[in-house]
Here is the input.
Amino acid sequence: MKRFIAVFLTIFTLASTARGQAPEGLSARSAVLMDAASGRLLYEKNGFERLPMASTTKIMTAILAVENCAMDDVVTVSPVASGVEGSSLWLEIGEKLTVEQLLYGLMLKSGNDAAVALAEHIAGSVDAFAAMMNRRASELGMYNTHFETPNGLDSENHYTTARDMAVMTRHAMTLPKFREIVGAKNASIPWQGKDWDRSLKNHNKLLWQYEGCTGVKTGYTKKSGRCLVSSALRDGRELIAVTLNAPDDWNDHTRMLDYGFTDFETAVLAEKGRLWDKITIDSEEVGLVCADGFAASLPLGYGGGVEYGVETADFSLPIKKGRKLARLYMFWEGELLGGVDLLADRDIAKKEGFFDKLIRIMKELM
Here is the structure.
């Protein structure tokens, strides 16, 4: 049994842009502003253009490290990792650090050597790790991204889009250890052979300059220009901003985040456990309960325009309480915002038919 209770003719993806007065005159070649809760883009400028992303690449490197390693795993630095050019932790051949220590060096100091050390530890080689990066990107829905290095040093086929970077960061910020690291202003990690530790200061100035900033990563090469991914949380609402090739990136991000916080509000469109509707199945009425809550950023004072559609799932009797019976979709002015599953609020037994009853009686008589 499957049917669409409400039908909408125009359905856009979660990447549709908001209607409203967006920031003008940004320096960035490409930029997006995303609502972290729903994945909805509130603003975009050339957000789907493929461009290099420099050290913001390391967001994916950190994701794979957090998802595939214990933080106390010990990594031995190889000659390849020790010899990497660019920003560095000055790792020495044979030096041993934990995954967690290398992650702080990766995300605060932007150590290219730390990126290679982690890549080799996780996948055995940089090439094998790049393959992991691309598989994970595909799983996350990054459709215009290709990785060749774990650190973002210039490479011909190493590119992304501002939209894809926001998608990746949205996932990264759901990982508690990632959030902890990118939100740290300072840290220290051991320095083999020295009487002092490596002192790390986060390159992300917004952690000091923007109220509510929670992360995440800077980047720069001559080819890519200045790249920046930031996030900020205010009144329970988190936004993600991305700029690629932005000479004035700090101001670009401040303006985009200000726009997101002042021109939009949180619209709670579904509440976990709420009875949404009732349907009748084989003459039995059953309630449809929201499995999760859902909220999205909509223009301040958005008023009407929100519509709902319910698509029933395939099911047959008997039905147990908590079984998925349908999915609720939420739209605003024709744009698909997202959806939540609707669950049965009680059990429904399969009714006994004539032949079922006959068989039961025969068994009782035997």
About this structure: Confidence is low (pLDDT under 50) at residues 1-20. The chain is about 25% helix and 30% strand. The first strand starts at residue 30 and ends at 35.
